[in-house]
Amino acid sequence: MGAQMVLGPYTPGAAIDAALKMKRSDVVVTVRESGLRGRGGAGFPTGTKWMLAAAATGDEKYVVCNADEGEPGTFKDRVLLSDHADLVFDGMAVCAYAIGARKGFVYLRGEYRYLLADLEATLERMREENRLGKSIAGKDGFDFDIEIRLGSGAYVCGEESALIESLEGRRGEPRIRPPFPVSAGYLGRPTAVNNVETFALASRIMEKGAEWFSEIGTDESAGYKLFSVSGDCENPGVYELPMGTSINELLTTVGAEDAVAVQVGGASGEMVTRDAFNRRLAFEDVATGGSVIVFGPERNLLDVLENFMDFFTDESCGQCTPCRLGIRRLLNGVRDLKKGALSADDLKMLRGLSKSVAISSKCGLGQSCDTPFASILDAHLKGVAQ
Amino acid sequence: MKATAGVDWCEVVDALAEKHDRKPHALMGILQDLQMEYGHVCPDAQIEVALALGISPTHVSDVISFYHFLCSEPKGQYVVWLCQTISCDMADKDQIAKALSDELGISFGETTGDGLFTLEYTNCMGMCDQAPAMLVNDEVHVSLTPDSAREIIAGYRREGGLG
Ligand SMILES: Cc1cc2nc3c(=O)[nH]c(=O)nc-3n(C[C@H](O)[C@H](O)[C@H](O)COP(=O)(O)O)c2cc1C
Ligand code: SF4
Ligand code: FES
User: Fold this and answer.
1) CB of B70 shorter than 6 A to ligand 3
2) What predicted TM-score, i.e. pTM, was given to this entire model?
3) In principle, which of A139, A171, A358, B125 could form an S-S bond with B66, CB 3.0–4.6 Å?
């Protein structure tokens, strides 16, 4: 639904063919000029990441497709992998060509194991068509293959350094960064980790050109974006819309005119209330990896906050004390608040605690907990819903 | 799911190490295969895995304890994972939970006496547009109603040979 530029028909191999007509360095330049920024949430410029990986020295380099998609409310990577796997895998091959990698991994969340057989079949077909393997598309010296590795149910493994730990056969505990994966990733080698959608877009950019992409969206957030919409709306699903689309426009498209609040960016994202629905979905305004959860007037927003804090408590890897214990205190605080057993002073203390968890945690899980905590609490106190 | 009694773990693990590699990075793949085949990774198997990959047995058990979908104690033949995250929660996952619990006669975290089913909660499984959703082992079931949830259980019960 929506624009169908990214999700539209694709001729398998087109992106690889287009990339191979260019020098490796020009592929990187094209991605930079397109303005593409990572679709996994953080929004790092993809061309810069590829440039760093290309410049890094190492006997081997790796391309990793982050298909751990665990942020509550996102499922667009599932749709890409189900219906557009060629686009994603071709994008990985383009990246391999650009940075000089011979091996790629897809880190597929365990919940998506049911997709594995089809994905393996697609890879096999790509090998038969010489889109993977040796001298890809007849290009001497361009050898690349992709292996799918599964996760086993741990949200934090979507964090790129935890993902690499998991690939190496360890607990998915985030590393201290720097060094970043582009210089020391899988087995200590330079590794470009990108989201599923980022690779799909890189393919489209090869096919249609940098300008096609950079002309869409806003100055800081180029191109189309896939939004996963769920919750209180008539038509939940994946929508392809230009970056910079307002929340209002999105809600009209999905049939959610009576929404009072939306959670943008999943459990680690921000709640936006009706009075601010003119805000835009873009890195410079309401940033998101694509999760949009809609709440109608009947919802108790404290239930939502409790659900998210419960989620983080469950999924914290436990390395940092503030994250492990602090978020549990926040969860208990929300439960007390629901029972009406929280004083104004306690509430103030919790707000402070949430801020200190955010500044004293090692990875994005703990670091982002204050965004939902503060914004959902504010939305509740505004009384927009029940 | 295969029984673990009398299994020659040395042989089983050797075949898996051959398939995945004999290096530490093969650990997840080997553990996932054992989990699929036997429903858990028993201590004897863990020791063989450690030996095959040249890592310590505590490393292996540490890794198993980290991941929700790996375990060292047996669970039911069918593990039912009901999504508890927000979009499923708003789509009345509590009603599904009650239907599953009533149908199986167990609470969440428990296994039926016949060893056929274990009931667990899981977090968002990427099916929020078709909430409420659940996994049974690695099969996905979406847009659940209390009736459909009961029927799904009945289906697995027949498949498990005790219908
Ligand atoms: C707790 C946590 C979970 C994450 N989960 C994912 C995920 O499931 N998929 C993803 O692409 N990025 C995820 N990320 C972001 C990655 O660390 C990384 O920024 C991303 O894969 C880079 O790719 P991109 O630049 O193409 O977005 C997560 C980050 C954190 C802190
Ligand atoms: S912030 Fe939380 S999830 Fe991240 S490394 Fe620390 S304890 Fe683990
Ligand atoms: S909230 Fe249940 S599948 Fe996402």
Assistant:
1) no
2) 0.97
3) A171
Q: Are A369 and A323 in contact (CB under 8 A)?
A: yes
Please work out, in degrees rounded to the nearest 5, the angle formed at the alpha carbon of residue B104 by the alpha carbons of B143 and B66.
75
DSSP A272: E
Strands (E), A68-111: 103-108
* Digit-coded pLDDT (tens) for A227-247: 999 999 999 999 999 999 999
Instruction: Pick from B19, B20, B124 the residue to mutate for testing the A interface (most A CBs within 10 Å).
Output: B124
For chain B, the structural domain boundaries read 9-66, 78-159
Mean pLDDT of successive 10-residue segments in chain A (386 residues)? 83 98 98 98 96 95 98 98 98 98 98 98 98 97 98 98 98 94 97 98 98 96 97 98 97 96 97 97 93 97 98 96 96 96 94 97 96 97 80
Average pLDDT over residues B90-107: 98
As given in the structure block, the two tokens for residue A361 are 């945690």
What is the residue-averaged pLDDT of chain A? 96
Domain B78-159, CATH 3.40.30.10 — does that match? Answer: yes
For ligand 3, whether the C-beta of B28 sits within 6 Å is no
Quick one: A298 exposed, middle or buried, by C-beta within 10 A (0-12, 13-18, 19+)? Answer: exposed
By the 10 Å C-beta count (0-12 exposed, 13-18 middle, 19+ buried), A6 is classed as buried
